[in-house]
C-alpha cells in the first residue's frame, strides 16, 4: 500500500516495521508527532515499541528507548527472545529521583511549561538534545504519573514534553500501562494518535490479544478491533477483513468446479460456480466432509490449487479416511496443489484465521493462491469465536471477500442430533451461503441409509430430488431419486412402493 495514499499528508509516513499495523494505520504514523500506546501490562506495548525502533535502525535513523520501569537487562532479554540485537538503539535508563517526591516539588508552579518539568523529564530532554533521534520511546508514563503526584501537574508535564518535541523532527511513542484508576482521557486528548492494546483471557484456551486505533488525527485508518499475536520476531497484526476493498468486476461466463461424481454435479445443476459458497449441513457421519474433500481433490487433480482448513479432524486421520474412500490426497499434498491446515480453535483467534485464509487465496511471489477453500467445520470456527453473536457478520465479510476473489468456498456444519426431528443447527449460516446441500440419515427396510438433497442455489438451476448417498472404498456413490419414499428428511419415511435396489444395481 502506498504509505501516503490514505494519509492525506504530504509527508512520508513512519513505518512501524509491523506490516499489519502499518496497514491498519493507513500506511504508518504521521512523522514528528507524539503517540500514546496504551494497554495493560503484558499486552505487548514494549514489543511494539522495540519493533518500531528496530525499523528505524534498519533505515539508518538514530533512535532512543527511554526506560523508567525496566532495566537494560530486561530489555535485552525481551530482544533476545525475538532474536533481535539492540545494537543501534540508545537505551537511556532513568530511575525515579527521590527529590521529585519532596513536598516543595509537588506543588511547584511556574508560568513557562518547560520550567515545570521534573528532574526525570529534564533528563529525558537532555538525552534527546544530545542524540537528536528520529524516533523516541518513553516507557512508561505510569512512573511520570506517580512522580507528578496530581493530575494537573502530570498533564502540564506531558504538555511540556509534547511542546519540546514539536519542531525537533522526532516521532515519539509514549507507553502507558493504564495504572490510573480511570481512563485517562486528558492524556488521550494531548496525543496525536492513540493505539489501544488489549489482552483477553477466555475461560478456556490461550490468551488473545487485539488492538484498536482510538484516535489518529488527520489520517484515514482501518477502524475496529484487529487481532494480533506476539511471536518470535515481534508483533503479528491481522487487520480486520473489509470485503469491499477487494471487489472485482464479474467475469462471464462464470467457470464451474465439478466434483468428478456425475450424480453430485447433477444435483448442483452441473457444479459449483467459482465465486460462490456452498454449505454442507447434516448430522455427524452423513458424509459432508467427504463430499467437501471430493471437490478439493477434484480441483487439485485438475491443477487448481485447493486449501482445506480442518478444525475437527487430525491431519493423519483425514489422510487415512480419505484413502479408505479411494481418495488418496497425499500425492496432491506433496505436489503442492492441495494444502491441509489443521486448526486448533482454542489457540486461534478469528482474525488470525481470516488472515490465514487470505494468505492462502492470495498466495505469494512463488506460490499461486488457492481457488478452492474448504472450512471443516463451522462448528470449530464457532468455538474459535469468543463473541459468537458476531460470527455471522464476520462470516459474511469473509465469504464476500472470497466471492470477490472468485473462490469456491465449501463450508461444513454438523447439526445436533442423528436421526429424526428436530435437528438443531448451532449457527444459522444458511442465508449467507449461495447453495445449501442437506444430508440426512433415514431408516428403511431394517437399514440406516443416507440421503442427500440440494435445498438452495442462488445461481442457476439445481435438482430438487432426494437421492440416496453412500460412502464406500470406491468413493462417493449417489443413487437414483428416492421417489418411492415420503418423509425422508424427517428420518422416518414412509415407503410407498417396492424395495429399492441397492446402489449400483438400478439398471440390472
What does this molecule look like?
Helix content is 29%, strand content 25%. The protein has 15 helices and 22 strands. It has helices at 19-24, 45-58, 72-81, 103-106, 119-131, 141-148, 151-165, 185-190, 262-267, 288-301, 315-324, 330-335, 350-362, 378-383, 391-404; strands at residues 34-39, 63-67, 89-93, 135-139, 171-176, 193-200, 208-216, 226-231, 234-238, 256-257, 272-273, 277-283, 306-310, 338-342, 372-376, 408-415, 435-444, 447-457, 467-472, 475-481, 485-486, 494-495. The strands form four sheets. Strands 3-2-4-5-1-6-7-8-9 form a nine-stranded mixed β-sheet, sandwiched between helices. The chain has a nine-stranded mixed β-sheet with strand order 14-13-15-16-12-17-18-19-20, with helices on both faces. The protein has a two-stranded antiparallel ribbon with strand order 10-11. α6 packs across α7. The chain is elongated, with a radius of gyration of 30 Å. The N and C termini lie far apart (64 Å).
Question: Which geometry do the CA atoms define?
Answer: elongated
Structural class: alpha/beta
Question: What's the rounded overall pLDDT mean?
Answer: 85
Share of residues in helices: 25-40%
Count of helix runs: 15
What's the multimeric state? single chain
**pLDDT < 50 runs, ≥5 residues:** 1-10, 106-116
The number of E-state strands comes to 22
In what range is the share of β-strand residues? 25-35%
Radius of gyration: 30 Å
Please summarize the sheet with the most strands.
Answer: 9 strands, mixed
- The end-to-end span amounts to 64 Å
Q: Numbering strands along the chain, what is their spatial order in the largest sheet?
A: 3-2-4-5-1-6-7-8-9
